[in-house]
């Protein structure tokens, strides 16, 4: 009936050190279509701030990995690059990938930290691995400081949808400190040409009879910049009325500015926009140079996803909309008039 | 008369009592946490999980044998369990912790849930839970539970189709469709159809549904946090820059900030 819990790894935190080991971070480097994800480059920057060695890990299908390692080994801040490929890793199912992490982290592992972007695949995989190693994890870190003498690491992270900032310390009694990084809080690590780093192949850990099978993927295709990393974002809310007016109003402005398109939860729930466009506590967190909130009231859940933007511009009919309390530039107007006028004038 | 060829599913739904999502929270003067003397309700993502469990039963009828909701929290969490029972869950377990106890960490919660699942005589086939709690925003418990149990997991699900005969669940999450073996399955939800409101008769009925009370000592679980909370502070305040009168002024402000048309 119930599957017996498979052999859980014996507690790793029984190890004790006379002095704290110097930090050695393992950074999970994610990639897509032959390119490293920029959020992983931010994770690498965060890992470098620990002040010790940093090893990168690239996992994927044989094709993907071979096209990514050339770029990955030139990343500034990496001392070693590990890569592991297997047809089983082509979709990064947590059940297939976590045994590789477990093996890497349990056999006299040199690693003191495991770092990744706060991305959806890392969020799926790393807590699973942490639990199997019997260590807690820290999510969505915005700053960190490692105390080499005591072997403890202090992190700050937003809680309550970004309405409070919590400072937590992972003491030395946690032998491997797992954390995911809010990419907008750390600059992306640079790619340099000269770096010579050690590149090692890691044998995949084949999972026979995996309990999960990937059937298919459907991606939202778009020529606009990716929402998570765009320097400008134009976002629409419930006031856009329907999917057609959402597109016909927002897209020309986004194109005129070279911006990505985002949406509030209300717009997503009402079917105006795909949920991959959602900005907020439950969607993506963005921090572009320019964030334009059009017909968005500014619920705290939405603000959680965009209030670190450099310049916030809001257009709303309601002068009392809470968005105006955070907007650097506010315009009380009917967006169906104001937005086309802006597009016109931006083109001039 | 129950069809014997179909496997009867027992569904577990862990839920959490949290500060209501609409409350504007305040950090306490001691900077140890936030002021908790405010309205609490069920974590919104957990409401979605309860709703989905009830809908799975509505679709599969007798193939779902039980829906059990579980919470780990102070005495007041009992209200949250009653809400879930009024939405359609059959029974509940309350692992009670003292009001003054620090909030348990996801790993501790996952271990408690594992202990509870292992105590169920008829076993548990599917665990459905919210993708994150809106207070700690950790988003780890479901994955940790699946890891501890060695079960399959489907995070951020937006659609779930359960086939009890084939023992398979087809889960769409983040636009990816994945098949899961149903006999070992933990799903956590991102968002879904609107959770239902409990009607008054259902609220009355929920008062009679069984709630089992347990303590962490009975389960042999230690919920002491392993991470130390040093302090909780207000985020830097963002102050609005005021309003402009028209589109021209708005564009002038953009220009001032160095933003002009297409790829400046």
TrEMBL record, chain A:
The species this protein belongs to is Rhizopogon vesiculosus
Q: Which cofactors go with this protein?
A: FAD
Q: Which SUPFAM superfamilies match?
A: Adenine nucleotide alpha hydrolases-like, DHS-like NAD/FAD-binding domain
Q: Which GO terms describe its cellular component?
A: mitochondrial matrix
Entry-linked InterPro entries: DHS-like_NAD/FAD-binding_dom (IPR029035), ETF_a/b_N (IPR014730), ETF_a/FixB (IPR001308), ETF_alpha_N (IPR033947), ETF_asu_C (IPR014731), ETF_asu_C_CS (IPR018206), Rossmann-like_a/b/a_fold (IPR014729)
Q: Where does the source fall among the domains of life?
A: Eukaryota
> What does the record note on quaternary structure?
Heterodimer of an alpha and a beta subunit.
Q: Which PROSITE patterns match?
A: ETF_ALPHA
Q: Which PANTHER family match?
A: ELECTRON TRANSFER FLAVOPROTEIN ALPHA, ELECTRON TRANSFER FLAVOPROTEIN SUBUNIT ALPHA, MITOCHONDRIAL
Q: Which UniProt keywords apply?
A: Electron transport, FAD, Flavoprotein, Mitochondrion, Transit peptide, Transport
Entry cofactor note text?
Binds 1 FAD per dimer.
Any idea what this protein is called? Probable electron transfer flavoprotein subunit alpha
Q: Where in the cell is it found?
A: Mitochondrion matrix
Q: Name one GO biological process term.
A: fatty acid beta-oxidation using acyl-CoA dehydrogenase
The residues that hold FAD are: 238, 264-265, 278-282, 295-302, 316
Which family is this protein grouped under?
A: Belongs to the ETF alpha-subunit/FixB family.
Q: What does this protein do?
A: The electron transfer flavoprotein serves as a specific electron acceptor for several dehydrogenases, including five acyl-CoA dehydrogenases, glutaryl-CoA and sarcosine dehydrogenase. It transfers the electrons to the main mitochondrial respiratory chain via ETF-ubiquinone oxidoreductase (ETF dehydrogenase).
Sequence ranges assigned to domain Electron transfer flavoprotein alpha/beta-subunit N-terminal in this UniProt record:
25-224
Kindly give the CDD domains that the UniProt entry links to this protein: ETF_alpha
Q: Which coarse location class applies to the principal site listed for this UniProt protein?
A: mitochondrion
TrEMBL record, chain B:
Its chief place of residence is: mitochondrion
Instruction: Tell me the ranges covered by the Electron transfer flavoprotein alpha/beta-subunit N-terminal domain, including all copies.
Output: 31-223
Q: What is the UniProt remark on how the cofactor binds and its stoichiometry? A: Binds 1 FAD per dimer.
Database matches in SMART domains: ETF
- Record's keyword annotation contains ATP-binding: no
Q: Which Pfam families match?
A: ETF (PF01012)
Keywords in UniProt for this one?
Answer: Electron transport, Mitochondrion, Transport
Instruction: Respond yes or no to whether keyword Disulfide bond is given for this record.
Output: no
> Superkingdom of the source?
Eukaryota
Record text on subunit structure and interactions: Heterodimer of an alpha and a beta subunit.
The name under which this protein is listed is: Probable electron transfer flavoprotein subunit beta
């Amino acid at each position: 009936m119930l599957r017996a819990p498979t052999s859980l790894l014996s507690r790793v935190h029984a190890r004790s050190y006379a002095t704290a080991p110097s930090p050695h971070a393992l950074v999970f480097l994610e990639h897509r279509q032959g390119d490293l994800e920029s959020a992983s480059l931010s994770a690498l920057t965060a890992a470098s701030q620990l002040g010790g060695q940093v090893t990168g890990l690239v996992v994927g299908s044989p094709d993907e990995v071979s096209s990514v390692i050339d770029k990955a080994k030139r990343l500034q801040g990496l001392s070693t690059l590990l890569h592991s490929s297997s047809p089983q890793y082509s979709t990064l199912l947590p059940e297939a990938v976590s045994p590789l992490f477990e093996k890497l982290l349990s056999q006299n592992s040199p690693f003191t930290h495991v770092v990744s972007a706060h991305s959806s695949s890392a969020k799926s995989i790393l807590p699973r691995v942490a639990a199997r190693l019997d260590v807690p994890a820290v999510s969505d870190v915005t700053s960190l400081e490692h105390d080499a003498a005591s072997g403890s690491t202090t992190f700050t992270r937003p809680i309550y949808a970004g309405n409070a900032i919590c400072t937590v310390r992972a003491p030395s009694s946690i032998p491997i400190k797992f954390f995911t990084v809010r990419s907008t809080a750390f600059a992306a690590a640079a790619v340099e040409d000269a770096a010579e780093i050690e590149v090692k192949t890691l044998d995949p850990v084949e999972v026979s009879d995996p309990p999960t099978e990937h059937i298919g993927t459907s991606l939202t295709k778009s020529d606009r910049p990716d929402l998570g990393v765009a320097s400008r974002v134009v976002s629409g809310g419930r006031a856009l009325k329907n999917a057609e007016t959402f597109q016909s109003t927002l897209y020309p402005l986004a194109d005129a500015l070279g911006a990505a398109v985002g949406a509030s939860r209300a717009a997503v729930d009402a079917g105006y926009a795909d949920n991959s466009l959602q900005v907020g506590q439950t969607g993506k967190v963005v921090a572009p140079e320019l964030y334009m909130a059009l017909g968005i009231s500014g619920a705290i859940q939405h603000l959680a996803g965009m209030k670190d933007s450099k310049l916030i511009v809001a257009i709303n009919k309601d002068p009392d909309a809470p968005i105006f309390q955070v907007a650097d530039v506010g315009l009380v107007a009917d967006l169906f008039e104001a937005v086309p006028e802006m597009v016109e004038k931006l083109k001039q | 008369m129950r069809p014997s060829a179909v496997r009867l599913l027992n569904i577990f739904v862990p839920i959490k009592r949290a500060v209501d999502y609409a409350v504007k929270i305040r950090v306490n003067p001691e900077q140890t946490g936030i002021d908790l003397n405010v309205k609490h309700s069920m974590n919104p993502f957990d409401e979605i999980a309860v709703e989905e469990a009830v809908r799975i039963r509505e679709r599969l009828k007798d193939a779902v044998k039980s829906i059990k909701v579980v919470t780990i929290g102070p005495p007041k969490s009992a209200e949250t369990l009653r809400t879930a029972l009024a939405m359609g869950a059959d029974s509940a377990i309350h692992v009670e912790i003292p009001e003054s106890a620090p909030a348990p960490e996801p790993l501790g919660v996952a271990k408690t849930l594992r202990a509870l699942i292992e105590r169920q005589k008829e076993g548990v086939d599917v665990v459905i839970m919210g993708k994150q709690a809106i207070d700690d925003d950790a988003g780890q418990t479901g994955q940790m539970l699946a890891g501890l149990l060695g079960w399959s997991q489907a995070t951020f699900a937006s659609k779930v189709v359960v086939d009890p005969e084939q023992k398979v669940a087809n889960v769409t999450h983040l636009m990816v469709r994945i098949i899961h073996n149903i006999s070992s399955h933990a799903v956590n939800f991102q968002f879904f159809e609107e959770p239902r409101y409990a009607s008054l008769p259902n609220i009355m009925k929920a008062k009679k549904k069984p709630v089992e009370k347990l303590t962490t000592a009975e389960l042999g679980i230690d919920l002491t946090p392993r991470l130390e909370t040093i302090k909780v502070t207000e985020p830097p305040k963002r102050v609005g820059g005021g309003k402009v009168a028209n589109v021209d002024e708005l564009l002038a402000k953009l220009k001032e900030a160095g933003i002009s048309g297409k790829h400046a």
